[in-house]
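hi support,

uploading two proteins for the ticket. first:
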Amino acid sequence: MTAENFDHILNTPAERTPFQVFTAEFNSGRRFEVDHPRALVARDGVAVFLAPGGYPIWFDHESVNQIIGAPAGTGRRKKRR
C-alpha cells in the first residue's frame, strides 16, 4: 500500500460522522479496533493509535494488510487497500 493511500484509507473512516468503529489488520494477522476518532493520527505513511490506557501502537503503510469497516470479530469485512 502506498503512503498516500494509507493516509487516505485511515483518515476517511476516522472522519466519518457518526464515527463507527473499524479494524486495522497487519500483515502478520494481528488486528486492533480503532474505537475513537481522535485516537488515531496518520501522516506520510506512518500512524499511531492510542489504545485504551494510552498504550501507543505505531505502524506504517507497509505493515497493514487491510482496513475493515467493522469491529473485529463481527465477520463483516469491507476491504480497503
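and the second one:
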Amino acid sequence: MKTKAPKRAGTSTLTVRVPIKLKNRLEGLAKSTSTNRSRLAVEALQSYVDEQEEQLARIDQGIRDARAGRVVPHEEVKRYLQSWGSNRKLPPPECK
C-alpha cells in the first residue's frame, strides 16, 4: 500500500513553464545558496507580488489625490526640477 507524503499546511502547488536558461540559473542559485529551487521561486514570487501590489496601491492613491485636487501644477514641478544642481535649489513644491 502506497502512502502519500503529507501536504504542507497552508501551501498549494503551482506549475509554471519557465525558459530552460532561467531554470538552469535557478538551479545554480539554489546550489550556491544551499537552498532548494522551490523556496527560491516562492521568495521571488512573493517579492514580485508584493512589489506589484504596492505599485498599484500608490497608483490608486495618486488617482484619489488627483480627483480630490491634491496636485502640484506642472510648472512648479518643472521649476523645482530645473533648480537641481544649481546654487539656488528650490524647496519642493507642495500640494495646493
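thanks. also noticed: The chain has a mean pLDDT of 92.
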